[in-house]
Structures are given as structure tokens and as C-alpha cells.
Amino acid sequence: MTQALEATAPLAIDDATADRLFRTARTVTTFAESEVTDEQLTAVYDLIKWGPTMMNTSPLRMLVVRTPEARQRLVGHMPENNQERVSKAPVTLVLAYDTDFHERLDVLIPHMPGAREMFAGDAEMRAGAARTSALLQAGYLLVGLRAAGLAVGPMNGDYAGIDAEFFAENGWKGFLVVNVSAADGADTTRPRAPRLSFDDAARVV
Amino acid sequence: MTQALEATAPLAIDDATADRLFRTARTVTTFAESEVTDEQLTAVYDLIKWGPTMMNTSPLRMLVVRTPEARQRLVGHMPENNQERVSKAPVTLVLAYDTDFHERLDVLIPHMPGAREMFAGDAEMRAGAARTSALLQAGYLLVGLRAAGLAVGPMNGDYAGIDAEFFAENGWKGFLVVNVSAADGADTTRPRAPRLSFDDAARVV
């Protein structure tokens, strides 16, 4: 174990963790049979909730799709090539942003008493801000699920249909569907695709 | 050290790493004096580039703002309350999405020869897809910077101005500005704000 726990500078986390979170983790399309528990999902949420969002607005919400009945309702709003995956995953998360996130800012931004009112009057601005920060949080969440020994399979669904099906009453807007499974036993059928290099993706000025 | 390297189930990463990436990490507003090197930024990029994006489109790009001249150009497009931070940070990243990401799909999606053409005809769809996946990647990047022992201070700038100043020729669109510093020596002036609980943010069906 000692070797696996050494960090390779300039990273400060050990190599096994870097592999688990990013380097060897894959987007999975087949799943382990073991259950993914609410205890695991709560631990992941309690980890990633600390990640930064605009003014701490924390607009990410998630629908945990677990029962056969709920799963069937979701499958009806997935493109055909993703339906079987959603049918077979132990748990599927619908990630959403809360367009009424300002109603929680008394809790989230106690140091700025007027925060709720800043957002209350402009629903369009609020939706844009919520989507942006919730997508950052979705990035944290995908990493956090892997940090709990889970594998993820993110994909897109028909969000208009999903919102009408599940979120008609609470103002949530779906933006990503994520199959979740124990990593040990999950797999993908595709060889790993290349990535751009730092020199391709960055400019230093 | 042994104790710090134990994972607290159901997380699979050790407590010190969970603290470093999420639990004790803070959005910083004052910075360490030590340099943040391109070697560090390259290692971070080479870690997080493996995170999932739609079809592996990988649209995140970044401008590494390092010289006093470039820094002054950026400061002119920041809101007044963020100008001093950008002036003082060792390095500031402007995160952007590449609206012409389809030009790289021959490299990124070799298993789907028509991928470039799928996106070539619809610039509006392309911009939306690029923004969405780049925001996920920005979430990975903020975690990845912390994984390299760095601290982050994400904030917003005037992106129309930033795009005109820096990206007039390459089709990049800025969406987040991130001050980066060594974590040891960086700080924040604000007490940590609360977060929503799992029961507040999730529904299980």
C-alpha cells in the first residue's frame, strides 16, 4: 500500500486516488449488481456540497431514481440508445437546478441579508445563474461519486419531458442524467478516446 | 500519517484528501506569495482532462494570465470589488469554452468519423453544448487544482469585454475567472457559510 499512497509531484494526492477520480475512471455503460445505497449518496453529497458556487447559492438538486416505477417513468424520456442503460443501472440520478434557489438564501448566505431580494425579481437571470453553478456542482458530484468507490455514466435525456414528469411542482430543471453503480463490476465497451494536450487547450499570457 | 490516510466509509478516499478537495478547502481571497508554475497547471490539466464530457467533446479552454501586462488587461474587465484580487493573485485563469470545438473531433472522437459534421452546421447548438460540458470540466478543474495543493478563488468578470480583449480571433467564450495560489498561505476573510442537507437537495423516488 505504501507505494500507492505516494503523491507524484506536483500533485498532492496519492496516485491511487488520482487514478480513482480521473485517470483510470471511465464512463460506464454496464453495471455492477450490488446496490448503491442512500447512505453512499448522502456521504457523496455531504462531501461535494462544500464546493464553491456563485455567492454560495448552491442550486444543484437531484432526483434519485430507485424504484422500478420511477425508473420506467424516466426511461420514457430517454433517447432510445440510452433506455436500456437506465433500465439496468442500480440507481440513476437526474441532476437539476432549482430556479427558486433564492428561497433558501436565508440559510445559505446569512452574511448578506438582502441576497434573496437580489434574485427575487428576475426569473431569467436566476435560471441562468442556477444552471451555471449547478453545472459546476455536477462536476464536483461526478468526482465525488468516484470518491465513494462508485462509477458514473452521465448522459442526456429529454429534459422538457423529464421536467414535466418529475418537476412540475417544484421549479427544478433537469440538465444531466447519471447512471451510478459500484465501480468494481461496472465497465464500458469502448476503448478510451484521446484528450487534448495542455498546449492545445491552454494559452499562457 | 496512517490515521490521515484511512478512508471513512462509505467514502473510498482518505480523510486528508477529502478535506483537501472539499471539506476544509475554502474559496480564497488572499494569496500565498509563492509562484504557481506552468508545470503545476499542466499536471492539473493532465489529471482532469480525463473527466467525462458529452461525446468526449472536451470544450474547456483556459487562458493562463501570468504577466503584469496581461493581468492589467484582465483587471479592466473585472467588477471593481474583484480587481484587487486579480491584481494580487500569483496566477489567474480565464476559463472558456471553444465554440469551434468540432474542429478537434477528429482527434477526440476517432471512433465516430462523422462527429465533426454533426456539429459543423449549427453554431448555436454548438455553443450551448460547449458551455455545458466546459462547466462540468470547470468543476473537475477546481477540484484538480486543489489536488495539486493549490487554492482557488472563482469569480465572474465582464465576459463580453474579456472575449473582445483576449478571444477575438479564436472563438473562445469566457465563463469563469479563477485566482490560483498555493493553498498554504492563502486565506479568506469570511466565516464558512452553511450548505443545504441531502434531504433539502435530493428527492428519492
From TrEMBL, chains A, B:
Stretches that traverse the bilayer: none
Pfam families xref list: Nitroreductase
The keyword Manganese belongs to this UniProt entry's keyword annotation: no
EC numbers, comma separated: 1.1.1.298
Superkingdom in the source lineage: Bacteria
Record keyword Methyltransferase present: no
UniProt enzyme class: oxidoreductase
InterPro entries the UniProt entry points to: Nitroreductase, Nitroreductase-like, Nitroreductase_HadB/RutE
Molecular function terms, GO-annotated: 3-hydroxypropionate dehydrogenase (NADP+) activity
Keywords from the named record: Oxidoreductase
Domain Nitroreductase: 25-157
PANTHER family reported for this sequence: MALONIC SEMIALDEHYDE REDUCTASE RUTE-RELATED
Listed name of the protein: Malonic semialdehyde reductase
